[in-house]
């Protein structure tokens, strides 16, 4: 969705607007196509997904990812003055909050099902 917003905002830029906005380096590599990167320019990679195959570790990572996304949306809202963009970003931010709540509930339920004596919430099936 964010990529679609970027495309809508940049697809009709003139050469002069591209240069003035500082969008020229990006434009040289990607024209006005959406190329997923961090604000720093670092390209998205599946390596950023920290999956361990352990339900506790993975749900904890999911919780952190939702909060990181929420903070990103908060920062976009601090910088944006476009009401149409802000409406979409607010929706996406709301979704991150709900995901965080659901992952938190899932983590609580998983912990309740595991060995209550295990202080570190390790998966007991791996530790036998």
What does the model show?
This protein is 61% helix and 0% strand. With 128 residues, the protein is mostly helical. The model has no long low-confidence stretch (mean pLDDT 84). It has helices at 2-10, 15-20, 24-30, 55-79, 83-113. It has 2 domains: 1-48, no CATH class; 50-128, Ferritin, core subunit, four-helix bundle (Ferritin, Up-down Bundle), CATH 1.20.1260.
State the helicity in percent bands: 55-70%
User: Averaged pLDDT, please?
Assistant: 84
Count, helices: 5
User: Roughly how many Å apart are the termini?
Assistant: 45 Å
Name the helix and strand elements from N-terminus to C-terminus, one letter apiece: HHHHH
CATH topology of the largest domain: Ferritin
Shape: elongated
Supply the helix-strand structural class: mainly alpha
Spans of at least 5 consecutive residues whose pLDDT stays below 50 are none
Name of the CATH first level of the largest domain: Mainly Alpha
Strand composition percent: under 5%
Rounded to the nearest angstrom, the radius of gyration is 20 Å
Largest sheet: none
Number of structural domains: 2
CATH superfamily of the largest domain: Ferritin, core subunit, four-helix bundle
CATH architectural label of the largest domain: Up-down Bundle
Question: Tally of extended strands?
Answer: 0
List keywords for this structure.
128 residues; mainly alpha; Ferritin; 2 domains; 5 helices; elongated
């Amino acid at each position: 969705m964010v990529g679609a917003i970027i495309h809508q905002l940049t697809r009709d830029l003139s050469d002069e607007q591209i240069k003035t906005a500082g969008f020229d380096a990006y434009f040289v590599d990607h024209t006005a196509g959406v190329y997923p990167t961090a604000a720093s320019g670092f390209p998205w990679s599946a390596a950023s997904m920290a999956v361990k195959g352990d339900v506790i570790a993975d749900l904890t990572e999911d919780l952190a990812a939702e909060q990181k996304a929420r903070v990103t949306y908060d920062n976009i809202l601090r910088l944006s003055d476009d009401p149409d963009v802000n409406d979409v970003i607010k929706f996406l931010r709301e979704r991150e909050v709900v995901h965080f709540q659901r992952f938190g509930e899932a983590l609580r339920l998983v912990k309740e099902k595991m060995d209550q004596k295990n202080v570190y919430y390790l998966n007991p099936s791996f530790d036998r």
